[in-house]
Amino acid sequence: MRQWEQIRETWDADFVEPISFVDVGDRVVVRQIWRLGRGPDANIDLTIICTLREGRVTSLEYFRDHAEALKAVGLI
Fold first, then answer.
1. Cβ(59)–Cβ(36) under 8 Å?
2. Boundaries of domain holding 22
């Protein structure tokens, strides 16, 4: 959590824009763009695999390469 706080402190504003959701049983693949504002100009393309158990997120896996995330859940 400290790492995320430090990253967010670098920019004055940020916004996460979901691009797509893919349901894969007990996991959801979420592709998103993290738009960072007013500081260094950067848009970060991230894909997150969310694992769910009993309606709760139990783990998150982050990927910079969308194809690698799809591979991790057996879609490629």
1. no
2. 2-72
Which conformational region is residue 74 in: left (phi greater than 0), alpha (psi within -120 to 50 degrees), or beta? left
Tell me the pLDDT of the chain (76 aa) as tens digits.
Answer: 787 677 667 666 677 889 999 999 999 999 998 877 665 567 889 999 999 999 899 999 999 999 999 999 999 9
Structure tokens at 33: 């763009």
Give every CB contact of residue 12 below 8 A, 6+ residues apart in sequence.
37, 38, 39
Spatial contact of 61 and 71, defined as CB atoms under 8 Å apart = no
Number of structural domains the chain divides into: 1
For the domain that residue 46 is a member of, what is the CATH number? Answer: 3.10.450.50
